[in-house]
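Example 3.2
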Amino acid sequence: MRAGMPSMRGVAAGALACALALVAPGAGRGSGASELRQALPVRGIVRPLQQAAISTDLPARVARLHFREAQAFRKGDALVTFDCERLAAEHAAAAAVQREAQLLLDSNTYLDKRGAVGRVDVEVSRARADKAAAEARALSARLEQCVIRAPFDGRVAELRINEHEIPASGQPFLSIVGLAEFEIDLIVPSWWLGSLAVGTPLAFTVDETGRTLEARVLRIGAAVDPVSQTVKLIAGFAAHDDSVLPGMSGTAAFPGRGGLR
């Protein structure tokens, strides 16, 4: 979430506070609880189950952007390729040093069996071979970072770099989201906890499309906000809907007493 933008809990809790201010103390705990649940607005925000903000510490320019904003990709697809010609040369040099060190170790091991060199010479050459192998593996791992691959199926949400540019170290330059599964973040009054449970059904009307989709409570927040007297619920859609996108908002409607414990 960008700096300066109010949090989902803050917005939803503020709306709830205004509604609860009109309700007399103790309301919602008596026979009119179901009616009050229908009257109180329960706002929610859709978020993807899988999302990532990608950054790198490679001091290399972008050679190719394989996908642009809003384009879809598959798991394992190359998203960004960096120009790592210098790093590849360093890796080749390290591999050559490793081979040299290994040859020296093999030679000293052979001579040691015939008493031509001391045991210390063998161990020193072994340590040098191990060091050279470790340096080659480190550069090999570094070289793999020259191509950023998609960790899941999804789409590009935001792209903050162009080809031929060098990304700032540690600063996200690519945001991706998965579109297979979504969750809904909801904020409800804490006194609803007595009648809500995991699996409680609800209907979520999406503001952007006007469609009402079936959902169920997946998890209930671990703590109550003592200031706003609200608690967070996480719900999930009963079925996948292609019209739903991350960041969409809407209103949740819970069933009457028959759907609650």
